[in-house]
Amino acid sequence: MSDAELKLKIIRLIDNQNSETLYQLYDLILSRLHSSKNEYSTVEDIEAGYKKMALDRERETKAFEWIEGTLDTEEL
Question: How do residues 4-28 score in pLDDT, each as one tens digit?
């Protein structure tokens, strides 16, 4: 079964549920997503991390020096 087929089956299954079951499904889905949150980051989290790293001038300088040291300037 493809991802698209699975999504369609899930949507159809959810569409046929009553209000109480929908709330239970919603809570279940949220709990599963939050339990795996440590494995994944949002784009905003990643962007904030990069901004924080870029503000650390000492580490940025060391990183730039390392990059420069790995370049073979004879071939340039």
Answer: 999 999 999 999 999 999 999 999 9
What's CA 62's distance to the chain center, in Å?
28
Residue found by looking up tokens 């001038």 in the block: 57
Nearest to 53 by CA among 45, 5, 2: 45
pLDDT bin (cut points 50, 70, 90) of residue 38 is low
Q: pTM score, two decimals?
A: 0.40
Handedness of CA 54, 60, 42, 33 (dihedral sign): negative
Return the domain boundaries, the chain.
1-40, 41-76
